[in-house]
Target: Bis(5'-nucleosyl)-tetraphosphatase, symmetrical
Amino acid sequence: MAALLFNSLSLLREVCSIITAHIRLVLLGLTSAPTQHLVLTGADIGARVVLIVGDIHGCYDELLDLVAAAKEAAHGAEIYLVCGGDMLNKGPKSLEVLLYLKDLMRQGKAAAVKGNHEEAILQQYSNLCKDSNYSLPKKYQYLKDFSDEDFAFLQQLPYSISIPHLNALVVHAGLLPGIPLHRQSLYNLCQMRNVENAVSLPWGQVATAIRKPTHGVPWASTWKGPQHVYFGHDCRRGLQQLPMATGLDTGCVYGKTLTGVLFHNMKIKPKLLSVTAKRQYYFGKQAEPS
Ligand SMILES: [Mn+2]
Model:
């Protein structure tokens, strides 16, 4: 009886968090994106070789190094770049990363999901739109160089990218196990790190997503597929290699490495590639709230 009550409360808590998250997205104008769950087909990618990259955080030079390394590993084949969110903020060249991605996307050679930092940028933009006297916080001063079109570009990014022919699913942060993609909270997709209270019930699995990595267990350790998930957002844990999930945030902006996964040959396992950061760009706490 107590267990049933506890499970019902967990479910209620999860439903409340989904509703709150949705209201938040509506307030930010983020529900206007054409799709929250993008599917990339073989026709979209063509003869290109897919490279999925972890948190870039404005490390433009390292991104170019990683793409060049991928191209070399793929024997000169053209790269299709998939970014796992948090492309901007914290690092030195956010605008350069944004313009590079926009250009590749215009040519049909890239896709990206939103991370919590893209959401935070859009929150700043929303503040600017609502109040012409709003002054950007110090760490967001660089947004003064962004155009309305740049913000619109960020706004239309999805929260997940599925690549069925690679059995790959890309999200920024994580997923709750046992719940179909379209029923996952968009907030969790770009914010969660852990899960707790995972219980299997007759009508499905219940679990609670946690943003702080101090309670519960890493969500990726509970993920059983069917898709292999590539994610970022967790530079404290660094590279995570689990049977059905790979964590790619290796803390480039903290002076560590920028990591990607290259699908250069369908017959062999995807290959991990990384380049070393030229220096440490950000000295704040790791995994701090945006
Ligand atoms: Mn993040």
